[in-house]
Amino acid sequence: PRAPAGMGDVPEPCPQAPLAVLSKVELRVSCKHLLDRDTLNKSDPCVLLLMQSQGQWMEVDRSEVIKSNLNPVFAKIFTVDYYFEEVQKLRFEVYDSHGQAGVGTHDDDFLGGMECTVGQIVAQKRVTKPLFLKYGKFAGKSTITIISEEISGNNGYVELAFRAKKLDDKDLFSKSDPFLEIYRIDDDRSEQLVYRTEVVKNNLSPIWEPFKVSLNSLCSCEEKRKLRCVVWDYDSRGKHDFIGEFFTTFEEMQKAMGENKVQWDCMNPKYKIKKRNYKNSGVVVLLDLKIHRVYSFLDYIMGGCQIHFTVAIDFTASNGDPRNSCSLHYINPYQPNEYLKALVAVGEICQDYDSDKKFSALGFGARIPPKYEVSHDFAINFNPDNDECEGIQGVVESYQSCLPKIQLYGPTNVAPIISKVARVAANEERTKEASQYFILLILTDGVVTDMADTREAIVRASYLPMSIIIVGVGNADFTDMQILDGDDGVLRSPKGEPVLRDIVQFVPFREFKNVSGAATRSC
């Protein structure tokens, strides 16, 4: 809303100011009557989700591959940010996968695509549309169905570990290859696939890998909501044999916390009718259940939480000799350099939420006294026992006095500092008091050298009460840094584990340095 006349200065508009996220939305995908591209078996479909960003289609995420199935229901749940005031274009592309070669993008592997907007899916809750091949040609009778669900404020998740005992043997020459599916039963009695475990080969008493699902996904955060769990014998041609099922609730599952275990008879209704002495088709046991509550930034602040602010400054040689006026670290007596401008812009906001006004200040990528060995997490006040400075001004003074004492070097490794702050945040989380939230501001002039370690450190940190702001200083190409931000797709560790929360914001400072201080801070 515009400020009424005479109400003082209106702040300058902020370039590319991020929109306020209205909510997050979960999307479930299924297909029917897909084209059969394989000569011997049926197609092995996989769905790619793409989102339009500045006119370009960017892959956000992809589903698992379902073997030999023309009517797949994908277990993968896509999560997207929903901005009410923006037209967010989505594209779903279905491909026939080829084993180790992965998902091809050739025309002969393409099973069809469909475009829509996030708003259309949210408004209709369930959208079924035909799939199209290239040039607007129908992909036979193929359709794709997207079901949307808004994620409520209760964004905790649960970790479950299941096993089974003495399952029915469905195979002639070997034992069954069981896998477990969990379905949530909605108010309209429709079933939504929550999770599908891996297949355990040739085993009537399988132990499945523990897995995590959000409480929203599992039971819509309603403990008494009915869940249907089904055990199947896997068939490579897609014709899985039904072993048995049981019904439960999240409320009942919670009896498995601690040393306790919960078990259910896995029942085949047909056998129950036909066989007089039928007891069950095996037993499924919930070995362990752990509930993890995930709190938002606002939850911490509203609860009286203090913000602990840490700044990490890049002292690698690519910044240039600080004595040279071309250096990004040049101390100009008349105006602050870009490092100082970015530090003050973010620090002035954070200090309002920090009662002691003390900020940790670290450096990385320099040779430091006395031995002049390279360090990637040193205190810029050279006090390893207490790296805190008095207010923003204290950080500025420590930065200015530190520069003449160090040798700028390299490489640009930021994982050590992320891990260092994460360790402090982890210790805070163990107190269960939620009294501190940690913000790490990383100021750097270039591309991170230890990208794999940094991605791993960010995924670990996403489980903790901390956020990371990375500000790119100077005119380097920061394309690779956008990966860490996660705005164009979910950031994953090198092993493929996604972040629990999007905790990183990357900002190229050059886009904001010419606007006023107030606008810079808000951006």
UniProtKB/TrEMBL annotation:
UniProtKB keywords: Repeat
Identification of the protein by name: CPNE7 protein
GO cellular-component term (any): plasma membrane
Residues spanning the membrane: none
C2 domain location: 6-131, 138-265
Pfam families named in the record: C2, Copine
GO MF term list: calcium-dependent phospholipid binding
InterPro entries per UniProt: C2_dom (IPR000008), C2_domain_sf (IPR035892), C2B_Copine (IPR037768), Copine (IPR045052), Copine_C (IPR010734), VWF_A (IPR002035), vWFA_dom_sf (IPR036465)
GO BP annotation list: cellular response to calcium ion
Domain spans labelled VWFA: 308-507
Family affiliation: Belongs to the copine family.
Signal peptide interval: none
PROSITE patterns: C2, VWFA
The encoding gene: Cpne7
